[in-house]
Design a protein that fits this description.
4-stranded antiparallel β-sheet; disordered C terminus; elongated; 6-stranded mixed β-sheet; 9% strand; 10 strands; 589 residues; 21 helices; alpha/beta
């Protein structure tokens, strides 16, 4: 199958605005040709001046020629503006349609894939990369049409008045094109890709750095503790310096070539006037000196077009990376969960080909049970929970919710059936009421207040004059980690899903907030299936069953008492926990 050109792919998003793109090229090319007409009138002015010299009072047509030159210059400008209006209307529509398609596709992707890709990179592709396509269509393509039309018109002008001077004027043009070809091509495309990769890496790491600022402040770390962010900046610096040095010599010769046309004209003037100066030759020489700067300007525009073409090629490739990400598989035969049970059957899952995060894991959680996943970091606890809410699909095995494979549940029904509270709950810049209503958009204020009360949030509401209408994140209104967690629990209570997943939900809570969060958990757990992921073993003592995970395998299961008596991995974890609770800060004597 023949590969589509960049332009064909972009115009596929244009719809009925495609005609405006073509019209912008015609208008831009027309404006370029009309812009050359004033040079002809300048030639006529010079001709008349030389004819009447030294009695310049006989020059009767100079004013007329001057006004005609101005008229055509203004007309060229107006036509070019019309072309830009057409190109911008089409470009805005195309960029909008690209963004809409990207966002619609992202909405079908597994949340885990989006998290792995990185929110910074996604934002850059949606905003800046699609913006590169917009700039290409709105400015660069009309300018390309204008540059080629100018080149064609210049060739005619250069060869019509004096073909000898015209041919000499083309020598630096040919030299410039030869040097330009050395700077562009596949190697340049590779450099453009490397440049965009460096920018994308910096954008992604910058987002992570900003998110981590609270940790830096809390623990007194320096910015250099964010080594990945620092490395991306250093990598970009190294690339930029090396690239600049690589192009320094060819760019120097290119600039010298395209600006050397005067040298050739001066040499021609000396050679052709050895036997005396003719008015016609002098007229043409002066005219060529006036018009040849347009050559270097046009060549520079053409060179930039090559670079712009590579930038939009890279932009489309990055857009393709997102569009090629496989959406969540859906089954045409949708079913409904029978209860609030959760079961994993021989599940194997890996984020990449190097190592599986879960290996042939099976377990069953009954309706109404409270279970906990514990174990060393990297054991697969969060991965397991992510599979239940279908952030990812397993490579092997099945994940059943209510006796139904999650792939046979609609996305909406699965989200209605399962609710989750993460260790770092995110609240949007909106009122407390709106934040809680995310769990149930059509809930009344009374229902929201009931959920907030059950989540132990009334002390938060009472400290703000506007109550539940207080907007978080404005005018100094900020909540602590534990307070945000309780608001998130209120959201989960309002949602009233039969299965609740708590992922390290007390991680950022201080002692006072932790007791309130635990009370909120107790209310949240009533009549529901609860799955807890925890490092603090104090939060899982009363769980109906504890699953101990290590390196993607289920190594132990049972109640807290049974696991302590088993003298296994959990026993060692319990002893370490007990010792940690006895630590005290020594008082200075």
């Amino acid at each position: 199958m023949e590969k589509q050109s960049n332009l064909s792919r972009l115009l596929a998003y244009a719809g009925k605005h495609k005609i405006l793109t073509y019209l912008s090229w015609v208008l831009s090319a027309g404006s370029a040709l009309i812009a050359l007409v004033p040079f002809w009138y300048i030639w006529r002015i010079l001709e008349e001046v030389l004819e009447v010299a030294p009695d310049f009072g006989q020059a009767e047509q100079i004013t007329y020629y001057g006004w005609m030159a101005v008229l055509f210059a203004v007309l060229s400008m107006l036509i070019y503006i019309g072309g830009l209006m057409c190109s911008h209307l089409a470009a805005f529509r195309i960029a909008t349609n690209i963004r809409i398609r990207l966002i619609h596709h992202i909405a079908t992707l597994p949340l885990g894939s989006i998290e792995q890709f990185g929110s910074g990179k996604l934002r850059r592709i949606i905003a800046e990369t699609s913006g590169s396509a917009e700039t290409y269509l709105a400015h660069q393509l009309p300018d390309k049409a204008k540059a080629f039309a100018t080149t064609a018109g210049l060739l005619i002008l250069l060869l019509v008045f004096d073909w000898r001077l015209g041919m000499l004027s083309l020598v630096p043009v040919i030299l410039g094109f030869v040097i330009m070809s050395k700077m562009t091509g596949e190697s340049m495309q590779q450099k453009i890709t490397e440049y965009q990769n460096a920018l994308a890496d910096m954008a992604g790491e910058a987002v992570e750095y900003v998110r981590g600022i609270p940790v830096v402040k809390t623990f007194g770390q320096t910015v250099f503790s964010f080594k990945r962010f620092k490395k991306t900046i250093e990598a970009y610096e190294k690339w930029a310096i090396a690239y600049t040095k690589e192009l320094r010599t060819p760019m120097m010769f290119y600039t010298l070539a395209i600006n050397s046309v005067f040298v050739f004209l001066i040499i021609a003037g000396l050679l052709f006037t050895r036997n005396g100066v003719e008015n016609e030759f002098l007229l043409n020489l002066i005219f060529y000196i006036i018009i040849t700067p347009v050559i270097s300007l046009t060549l520079s525009k053409i060179m930039r077009q090559s670079e712009n073409e590579m930038i939009v090629t890279d932009a489309l490739q990055r857009i393709d990376v997102v569009l090629d990400m496989p959406p969540l598989a859906s089954d045409a035969h949708l079913k409904h969960p029978k209860d609030a049970s959760v079961e994993l059957e021989n599940v194997t899952f890996g984020y990449d080909d190097s190592k599986n995060a879960l290996e042939n894991l099976s377990l069953k959680i009954k309706t109404g049970e409270t279970v906990a996943f514990v174990g060393p970091s990297g054991g697969g606890k969060t991965t397991l929970a992510s599979l239940i809410v279908r952030f990812f699909d397993p490579q092997e095995g099945k994940v059943l919710v209510g006796g139904v494979d999650v792939r046979n549940l609609s996305k909406e029904e699965l989200m209605d059936h399962v609710s989750f509270v993460f260790q770092n709950s995110q609240l949007i810049k909106a009122s407390i009421l709106d934040n809680v209503r995310l769990g149930k958009p059509n809930a009344t204020e009374a229902e929201v207040m009931q959920a907030l009360s059950a989540a132990q949030c009334m002390d938060i509401i009472e400290k703000f004059p506007a109550g539940i209408h207080t907007v978080i994140g404005t005018k100094g209104v900020y909540l602590s980690g534990g307070e945000q967690q309780r608001i998130a629990i209120a959201r989960a209570i309002l949602k009233n899903a039969p299965i609740i997943i708590l992922d390290e939900a007390t991680a950022f809570a201080d002692p006072d907030n932790e007791s309130r969060v635990q009370a909120a958990f107790t209310e949240l757990a009533k009549g529901r299936t609860v799955i807890m992921i925890a490092h603090r073993l104090s939060t899982v003592i009363n769980a109906d069953r504890i699953y101990v995970l290590k390196e993607g395998h289920l190594v132990e299961q049972g109640t807290c008492r049974e696991l302590i008596q088993a003298e296994g991995l959990f026993t060692n974890m319990w002893k370490d926990y007990q010792r940690s609770t006895q630590w005290k800060v020594a008082k200075e004597v």
